[in-house]
Design a protein that fits this description.
Blueprint lengths: L22 E5 L12 H10 L4 E7 L5 H11 L2 E7 L1 H11 L1
Parallel strand pairs: 1-2, 2-3
Length: about 100
């Protein structure tokens, strides 16, 4: 699965050889984003309970550091991918849809 590095998978993950995974690629967390009331720990727990295989922490103009992401992945035995949504991307989408 070449679209994320081995380091982002929790140690011992059964998904290392899997081909299909259900991953939510757009999630915000509080207090890094005003678009959410969930802290990262709560978001991960809810995503696991919903049957997801992983999430991407997609904050506005901020990227989670790899060490923190790896710690969360290992703690919860869950795939956590750091992402970012830039204000430039938001402006570009608005320009093309209006």
């Amino acid at each position: 699965m070449p679209f994320y590095t081995k380091g982002w998978l929790p140690t011992g993950s059964p998904h290392r050889e899997s081909v299909r995974m259900l991953i939510d690629l757009h999630n915000h967390t509080w207090p890094r984003s005003q678009d959410s009331v969930l802290d990262p720990e709560d978001l991960i727990q809810r995503a696991k309970a919903a049957g997801l295989d992983g999430i991407c922490l997609t904050e506005h103009d901020k990227v989670w550091d790899e060490t923190t992401v790896q710690q969360m992945a290992d703690k919860h035995e869950f795939l956590v991918i750091p992402g970012v949504l830039t204000e430039e991307e938001i402006r570009t989408v608005r320009e093309h849809t209006e």
